Amino acid sequence: MKELEKIYNPSQVEDATYDFWQKGNYFHAQIDPNKKPYTIVMPPPNITGQLHMGHAMDETFQDILIRVKRMQGYAALWIPGTDHASIATEARIVAAMAEEGITKEELGREKFLERAWQWKEQYGGRIVEQLKKLGSSCDWQRERFTMDEGCSKAVNHVFEKLYNQGLLYRGERIINWCPHCHTSISDAEVEYEEQQGFFWHINYPVKGSNEVVEIATTRPETMLGDTAVAVHPEDERYQHLIGKTVILPLVGREIPVVADAYVDREFGTGVVKITPAHDPNDFEVGARHKLPLIRVMDDDAKINQNGGKYAGLDRYDARKAVVDDLQAGGYLAKIEPHTHNVGTCYRCGTTVEPIVSMQWFVKMVPLAKPAIEAVKDGSIRYVPERFAKTYMHWMENTRDWCVSRQLWWGHRIPAWYCEDCGEITVSATPPTKCGKCGSSKIHQDEDTLDTWFSSALWPFSTLGWPEKTPDFNYFYPTNTLVTAYDIIGFWVSRMIFSGLHYTGQAPFNTVLIHGLVRDAEGRKMSKSLGNGIDPLEIIEEYGADALRFTLVTGSTLGNDMRFSDEKVKASRNFANKLWNAARFVLMNLPEDFTPGLPDEADLDLSDKWALALFNELAANVTENLDKFEMGLAAQKVYDFIWDVYCDWIIEISKPRLNSGNPKEADVARRVLVWLLSGALKLLHPFMPFITEEIYRALPGSAETIMTQKWPEQTQELAFTAEQKAFGEVIELVRAVRVARAEMNTHPAKRTNMIVETSHPEAFEAAVNVIEKLGFAQSVLCVPRFMGDAASMVKVATPAATAYLPMAELIDREKELERLAKELAGAEKEVAALSGRLGNAGFVEKAPAHVVQDIKDKLTNAQDKLAKIQEGIAALQ
User: Could you tell me if 494 and 456 are in contact, meaning their C-beta atoms sit under 8 angstroms apart?
Assistant: First the structure.
């Protein structure tokens, strides 16, 4: 029998336990026709990443689900992996090269990619090792990387398939351009933030008249690329201008006035400038009216040669210069302050610039339709359900997805251009010649694909698709996707349409959405606020189990949680409480102890009560987990271990353990061990390390708790009558203890007790428990109390009433003297607080929160005074 250390030290247990699990191959899922598969794919963290609290919460929820299903007999597979994170990784490598004085252009593509792979090998596995610290029971033998050979094959296969189906095209469209990252980004990668700006009202002269039209813009520098102004076709104010031209201020270019229903007649003057190369809506207007595209910014967001004298200026410097010149030329009508949402790059925070560019796009509307239906018809459900609305809004308002990126690190677009005939050849395997004219003078597209293009295939590419591998055939579709609400548009929506379109099946049936981890004040953790909490530091100080338990009990699905040291300390204290309880049990076991439940005939009333409570617990926890109510499930296990097992069951067992009766002691031990083993199994998914360590110390335990059968409710343990009867005993004992505490009666001061109840036999069967835990020297159970009630302290519960001789509980005179002192102090406090609130000048001038604070203190003081007065009245 293994002996537990006196004090639980997570740092000594956790690494060794994880190593034991890995060596035992316990995380590996086997294809088993006799088992039902249960599959989760890990949202792949970036190879640039460090474990943060969001990861910790995400992985904890996934690990709970996979550990439960493993214990329930499923072939439970949790696929881990990492994402190549093209923008973030390339930025890191470029920054490192800059410190050496090298640019990627000087190095060249091939040498740069060599460096990138070296960087990935050196740093890419860091977050994997950090995930192991958390206790993640992933199948590491199946670990994947979005740019490994299999995933890359899937990417190229999909690109070719979409192209051949007419769902992928190359064309000039407005895209979101990040001048800092030097790449296009998709709509999902644009984060909007509120910024203070201005509306500049500019007069455009109508050619051949003294008339002007007034337009308003937040980006006056883009007027250099205007190719029209537009009015609503039914706006009577401007009917006479349709078909005429205006003169573009500063530039002198003659541009037409077009009629288009896009214009909002009620907004501003009802006239808008049209800059097709720098605004997505203007691009559509331009296409309808065949307007020229004049791009006036380069990739650095500087004005290009089309901007005339402003060429070379940064966009913001150009803005100032244009406004100054408009003012000087008499074109500026007015300037209005304006608060508006500005799109920024989700990676670097730079304001993105809408520009027209030649890019690759995926046609989204045909792909979105079945993805919308899958959620509508219940094939895929969101938990909590309200997040389905976020998904539906995204999918129903989707636009074509720009998938090309001007980067080198990533999946290079499998498209080749013929230098002789201009033909584009798209192929999953590199061609040697042009598919049209046969020329060997072909070159591959320089761009790479959006990182999310490969991530969208993650649920099936990780299982070997497009090949029909045994893993794919058995483990796909997956079951539950666990993720935060902030990437529903980025990732979840794309996995759904991809799974449906490429495999014909939804990639998972449930999307489990959790919230974000915030600091104790509810603020989002960020570098700028300096309030980030490193989960590895928490693990080092308190242990991974304490961190995991805090994350799960402190959160409800879909809602953000507040994280604090106090919460982790409470979880650490729970681990210590469990450890000490286990040590007590083990210290009371003889060397020849044989585990297993005793025969029912040998169980006493308290044993049946305890077993029935555990039986209910197993059912309730399982039901909560089936509903993904992990916080509730964890709390119920906590309540049973702390409030029932430690505070009651162990205490109730002590008289029998020390009774000198071998059979009674053996029954008590076997019930204690059986309940402890069961509680450890229910707790294991939440706190895997400490439960494994204690379980393996129990006599008769298997090699690991991980593969043990999940506790289930059974009819054999449904001792309903005994549970109710002994529950009434506990309720009375608890009430007696409360009454004694209120009278400041020391536990060593034992009294006689008479219990009045309509069914005394149940209480008589538990007299030893009432005596020990109710601090009684004797207990008499009667159907009706016939003594002098006036000399007794009466403690009533619905099932029974305990009568305690007052003289045995307290020294009446001393207690009255003590209460008199407390009464004087309480009266003084009430008078002082009432006096402050009675001062009209103070109440009028003091801040509202100060006045409210005093009101709250007065209420508490009055309550305290009333209780003291009640105590005095009772004694008198």
Answer: yes
